[in-house]
Amino acid sequence: MELDRIECVSTVGGEEDEDPEIRNLHHSGLHIHHPLSHHSPQFAASKPSNPIATNIGTATNIVGPAAVAPATSVHDLLECPVCTNSMYPPIHQCHNGHTLCSTCKTRVHNRCPTCRQELGDIRCLALEKVAESLELPCKYYSLGCPEIFPYYSKLKHEALCNFRPYTCPYAGSECSVVGDIPFLVSHLRDDHKVDMHTGCTFNHRYVKSNPREVENATWMLTVFHCFGQYFCLHFEAFQLGMAPVYMAFLRFMGDEADARSYSYSLEVGGNGRKLTWEGTPRSIRDSHRKVRDSHDGLIIQRNMALFFSGGDRKELKLRVTGRIWKEQQNNPDGGVCIPNLCS
């Protein structure tokens, strides 16, 4: 069956390019490749080395400062032999004294992974008491986190630690790459071939033939660099209940607290009508799916999108314009984005 042709034409600063750039669509797991646009010199630098291994999630035993070094051997005793993560109550043991965590107890079918004896329901209360007395460094100590926590507070902190790596924000395929922001920007550019633009205003045209057959579809991600930060613009089609819709939203490449310092607007229209959206970009700490499912962005019903497209309503042609600005609460003139000065 012939695939639908989906294009995205992108211009920056509100002006159209003479030669429309065609963007990639990841549609139903298929990759349709089109020529890529020229990248800004801003992104021409060589790819920095990634200070974070892509399997960082498994590196739980980070040795901390010298002050906590004596606890390291005890920490090893609290490492589950199956998953290698730290064990938390209930800690189970077999008749021979071998221990493992409660999660892995079901994985090994109630058999000790060390001696193969039946585990039963024996708790290792002594080891649980030892765990309560420990203070250990955050597992992201090697990435810059200086914090030390009681054993049972450590997990809660690590789930929210500002030094934990970011997940790749690309939504067109499953990508398990993690790293800091400079590394992910290079990864998006070099590995996912996303469009990179400098500036705080944009004017995009999204095109799809045969829009009556709406299925989950994601247009190529665009990354913007302005105010010394990076932002990801998403646009896609999906089913909202029984109704097919199109949605555009912006994500901030950084933590949520920093994301709240910025705002953005999106506008789409045609035939004398328009829809506008204004909001705060979501951090890439929130997954693409979480943002989409929360409907936190500009949502366009298919009938309205076809009305905006004009013509015989047989092809989707949506023009989405937008602007990013920085909130300056102490400046009465703040929040104004001046073209060519906001980067």
Automatic annotation (TrEMBL):
Pathway where this protein functions: Protein modification; protein ubiquitination
Pfam families in the cross-refs: Sina_RING (PF21362), Sina_TRAF (PF03145), Sina_ZnF (PF21361)
Keyword line: Metal-binding, Transferase, Ubl conjugation pathway, Zinc, Zinc-finger
EC number: 2.3.2.27
InterPro entries xref list: 7-in-absentia-prot_TRAF-dom, E3_ubiquitin-ligase_SINA, Sina-like_RING, TRAF-like, Znf_RING, Znf_RING/FYVE/PHD, Znf_SIAH
Highest taxon of the lineage: Eukaryota
Example GO biological process: ubiquitin-dependent protein catabolic process
Main EC class the enzyme belongs to: transferase
Entries under PANTHER family matching the protein: E3 UBIQUITIN PROTEIN LIGASE SIAH, E3 UBIQUITIN-PROTEIN LIGASE SINAT3
Name used for this protein in its record: RING-type E3 ubiquitin transferase
Originating organism: Trapa incisa
